[in-house]
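Project channel, design review

CF: Before we commit to the Kribbella rubisoli constructs, I'd like one complete example in the thread so the newer folks can see what an input/output pair looks like. Taking Pimeloyl-ACP methyl ester carboxylesterase.
RD: sounds good, go ahead.
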Amino acid sequence: MPPSRSTTTSRDGTRIAVYDYGNPDAPTLICVHGYPDNASLWEPVAERLATDVHVITYDVRGAGESDHPSRTSAYALDRLQEDFEAVLDHASPDEPVHVLAHDWGSIQSWQFVTDEHPRIASFVSISGPSLDHAGYFLRRANRAALTQLLHSWYIFYFHLPWLPELAWRRGWAHRVFNRLEQQDATEQRSIGDYVNGMKLYRANVVPRLIRPAQRRTDVPVLAVSPDADPFVTTALQTDIARWAPNLTVTVVRGGHWMPRNDPGLVADLVRKHTREVAGFGA
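CF: and here is what came back for Pimeloyl-ACP methyl ester carboxylesterase:
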């Protein structure tokens, strides 16, 4: 059954498209997609979890049916947190929620999870570190940090003027990134998802890596690292116990786009984690 669609409005007036998979009497799970995806990424996962939890997905600003602000500053992590809080108030105003996130969805969710009052009961993070944690990780200047920098080549590329946008519009970049994951990564995406989402990198990466904050959380975190991820190394994703002491680490076989390529495994990992920390999903 397809989800119902509604909208909520963030603090700066940006409209966020929200998708509700029903089961409102169950605990709420909010799924946050990454770049260059939109909320449709979560459809196969949500279909498998909808009997256990109240699944909510949303299009991050700049993607899908949400508004597409033109200013790069509108994509700062503080604005993304305001979007999440608007979705949270819309979907579960009175109860804490569980969060499942991937890629840039995980990066921004670390911002929410490490808030002073997160209103989050548990967090499953796939292929997405905190930028603040990454700033400290890269300061070690050791082999693991150098390996991650090599994996992060595309971030430097996204900071170039006009060329990345041209490459997406002409289709050159699609071929490169699809080859890295050996999949058709254009499914259910628009050119806006690709072009707008680069502002996430330009608004946040350099400031956070240069001046990282000591962001900590007691929320139960499951960090899931696919062993063949071409973009994010396992060390960067999982060497975070100093910041998240209530941490479980799972390394799985697979590539970066787990939610699309192995939704059954993602659903199983969410059930297991939430069962352990909240007693549901059995």
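RD: helpful, thanks. The chain has one domain: 4-278.
CF: Residues 35 and 149 are 19 Å apart (CA to CA).
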